[in-house]
Amino acid sequence: MSHPSPPSAAGRRTIPLREVTLPHQCPRPVRMYVLARAPYFRGLSEAELDVIDRRMRTMSVPADGYIYHAGDPADALYVVAEGSVKVAQVTAGGTETVTDILVPGELFGAMGTLGEPYHLQSASALVATCALRIDQDAFREVLATYPRVGLRVLDDVAARLARAHADIGGQTTDTVPQRVATALLRLADKLGEDRGADGVLLEVPLSRADLAGLARSTPESVSRVMSRWKKEGVINSGRRWTALLDRRRLEAEAAGVA
């Protein structure tokens, strides 16, 4: 299998992250499309989505700009419309550890109504991003109007609790290669571009520290694993991109059977 070459200075090949040019207002077709994909609103009719869209506010955020910080009052939910969002937790030492990367159609944020009066994590734009925001009062109106949305919220809260317990268990039992492979596969499913024989390409501005946060490890441990896999032809990487060359091997690593 050939390795993807880094983009040349003369003809840089970029894989679109749907980054937007600011200032920017998400057009209605984009808003309706991402609302239809959002887990809470999936399956609603266009007329129902239009009612929700009218309660939303559009916000444009430059790359690395914060949508909210950990500790801020939690009074709104957001949907990524264009671009991508990095969610991070602040450690006791004051550094940020990435916990998730969100793409168009994904929900994030918190509300006192849902049991979180303050944000436990921060959210910032990984690239220039457009997001839709619905405040707490407007969301309560949506819940009252569409009981199906309320049931999905309950399902989501239960799923988050289950994931949190699974992550705690995995952190104590999984090896670093297992956690790194799992993080890479999740990113590939969200952001990857299938390049056929050249594997799956991730052109995402993630540092080793960011990947370490997703893998619940240290940058040094992640670098050792990534360097070994690069030598073995499992992955290839450059300054702003990573290619997954051998997905089966990564799946085996994630399962602990490599």
From TrEMBL:
Signal peptide bounds: none
GO molecular function terms noted in the UniProt entry: DNA binding; DNA-binding transcription factor activity
CDD domains for this protein: CAP_ED (cd00038)
Sorted UniProt keywords: DNA-binding, Transcription, Transcription regulation
Limits of the Cyclic nucleotide-binding domain: 40-160
Pfam family, one: HTH_Crp_2
Domain HTH crp-type residues, every copy: 174-248
Assigned GO CC terms: cytosol
InterPro entries: cNMP-bd_dom (IPR000595), cNMP-bd_dom_sf (IPR018490), Env_Response_Regulators (IPR050397), HTH_CRP (IPR012318), RmlC-like_jellyroll (IPR014710), WH-like_DNA-bd_sf (IPR036388), WH_DNA-bd_sf (IPR036390)
PROSITE patterns named in the record: CNMP_BINDING_3, HTH_CRP_2
The organism's place on the tree of life at top rank: Bacteria
SUPFAM superfamilies the record matches: cAMP-binding domain-like (SSF51206), Winged helix' DNA-binding domain (SSF46785)
Name the record gives this protein: cAMP-binding protein
Annotated source species: Actinotalea fermentans
